[in-house]
Amino acid sequence: MQNENLYDRKNLAKLKKMDSLAPEAMKAFWAFDRAAVADGEIPVKYKELIAVAVALTTQCPYCIEIHSDNARETGATDTEIAEAAMVAAALRAGAAVTHATHTLSHRANAA
Prior knowledge:
Number of strands: 0
CATH superfamily of the domain at 42-101: AhpD-like
Distance between the termini: 49 Å
Largest sheet: none
C-alpha cells in the first residue's frame, strides 16, 4: 500500500467489511462510539470539541475531519475549534517536557 492511499477517505467504505468480518466486536464498537459522544452531562458540542483535540493528538486524519465537521454541526465556531487545537498542542508539548525529566539520569546529575 502506498502512503498517499493510506488515508484516502474511500478506505472508510471498508468499515462495512470490518462489520461483516468481526460483527460482534464491531457492533459493540459502534454502540460504544455512539454512547461516548451522546448528549449527557457534557453537551455534544463539548464532546465533539474534546474529540477534535484528541484526534489532533492521535493525528488521525479521519477523526480530525469527522469530528471537526461534527463540532461545526453542533454550533462550534472556528475559534472554539482553534482553542481546542491549542489545548491539544499544549498537552503534547507538556508531555514532551515532563517526559524529558526521564532523560535526566542520576549519572548525569552526579557529574
